[in-house]
Amino acid sequence: MNVHEYQAKELLKEHGIAIPAGHAALTVEEAVEGAKKLPGPLYVVKAQIHAGGRGKGKFKELPEDAKGGVRLAFSLDEVESHAKEMLGNTLVTIQTGDAGKQVNRLYVTDGVDIESEYYLAMLVDRATGRVAMVASTEGGMDIEDVAHETPEKITTITIDPAQGFMPHHARSVAFALGLSGDLNKQCQKLAKQLYDAFTASDCDMLEINPLVETKPDADGNASLLVLDTKMSFDSNALYRHPAIEAMRDETEEDPAEVEASEYDLAYIKLDGNIGCMVNGAGLAMATMDIIKLNGAFPANFLDVGGGATTEKVTAAFKIILKDPAVEGILVNIFGGIMKCDIIANGVVQAAKDVNLQVPLVVRLEGTNVEAGKEILANSGLAIVPADDLGDAARKIVAEVKKAA
Ligand code: ADP
Ligand code: MG
């Protein structure tokens, strides 16, 4: 699950991390009120969407030369005019895809006098089973280019979670960012705080870009500040963090995935044309693999779970069919706890309810399989039965080709 920048910053603050003051806003008035609480004279108005690249983003509804989704404002009037232009409009960035994302929330924050911008991120590295901390001196809006063109400017430090974050990790991070003196110390402290925030909230990913060094103040002191952050969390661990779960913004998520989660279905939209309904995550993965082996692509991952009811199967069917790319459906059920006749009833009911127009191949195996097959055969619907997984995949691919 992802959260907005302002929410992630609230979480980091709880770990003692220095964040510039700021206020979230849902309306133009709230944006101006938020700015009034800040010292000024420089404010930054930031679009809150679950995607990066906002600074260089473009609003669909605004002229080509209009400013992007992160804007400096030098007065309250300017905060107001930026908020008016941004709220309700669609921001397209390199991370949103062409459709862009509608801006429904803003964050108004203190403007910071920046000396330099760094990059610091943490993620779960599945290959090593460790936490990878990624640091670069080349922070800011072009980090993707840095990764492609000068990967040597990016340093990765891995932390064994069993051992935990050690002082040498902190020193390595500060060294990778080329910091010395007091800034080096600040960085070491920050790296530890970030690691603690990361593990304490079961993060998948925590990215600070940019982490900035401020211009020195009158006494010559500079500090490190988190100017932008992205955090995502392991959904399976959310039950341990109700406060984080409450930050979920469903308007940012794929509507089909939101609907699926209401029915407790594990659904993930993919790019292919063959809808899949399977029970069990492992079987669902195998089903997707075998579809690909037969030269087609799955339109989704969908695990209806072990104890699905007719209602759940119907809901699953409807969700699959909402995707206009779906040209055929493969149902692959192993009836263990779930009985094949229940599934068969659900499939027939759903196919009738949605007035199914695309080919449907069903493979059933396990408890009450004969009864299930009979229900399908007597349904009066053009359901193609399959004997095993390979047969099912071949049949759905052939049916879709035939229908095209
Ligand atoms: P995104 O990564 O989505 O483009 P950022 O929050 O990183 O959004 O903002 C883009 C750029 O805007 C930053 O790299 C930084 O240069 C500038 N910026 C962001 N927040 C502030 C701020 N509070 N004060 C001054 N400049 C800022
Ligand atoms: Mg950024």
Automatic annotation (TrEMBL):
GO terms for cellular component: cytosol; succinate-CoA ligase complex. It catalyses: (S)-malate + ATP + CoA = (S)-malyl-CoA + ADP + phosphate; GTP + succinate + CoA = succinyl-CoA + GDP + phosphate; succinate + ATP + CoA = succinyl-CoA + ADP + phosphate. InterPro entries: ATP-grasp, ATP-grasp_succ-CoA_synth-type, ATP_grasp_subdomain_1, Succ-CoA_synthase_bsu_CS, SUCC_ACL_C, Succ_CoA_ligase-like_bsu, Succinyl-CoA_synth-like. Its cofactor is Mg(2+). Pathway: Carbohydrate metabolism; tricarboxylic acid cycle; succinate from succinyl-CoA (ligase route): step 1/1; One-carbon metabolism; formaldehyde assimilation via serine pathway. Its EC number is 6.2.1.5. Mg(2+) binds at residues 209, 228. It holds the Pfam family Ligase_CoA. Gene3D superfamilies: ATP-grasp fold, A domain, ATP-grasp fold, B domain, Succinyl-CoA synthetase domains. It is an enzyme of class 6 (ligase). GO terms for molecular function: ATP binding; magnesium ion binding; malate-CoA ligase activity; succinate-CoA ligase (ADP-forming) activity; succinate-CoA ligase (GDP-forming) activity. Substrate binds at residues 279, 336-338. One of its GO terms (biological process) is tricarboxylic acid cycle. It comes from the Bacteria. ATP binds at residues 46, 53-55, 112, 117. Belongs to the succinate/malate CoA ligase beta subunit family. HAMAP family: Succ_CoA_beta (MF_00558). Succinyl-CoA synthetase functions in the citric acid cycle (TCA), coupling the hydrolysis of succinyl-CoA to the synthesis of either ATP or GTP and thus represents the only step of substrate-level phosphorylation in the TCA. The beta subunit provides nucleotide specificity of the enzyme and binds the substrate succinate, while the binding sites for coenzyme A and phosphate are found in the alpha subunit. This is Succinate--CoA ligase [ADP-forming] subunit beta.
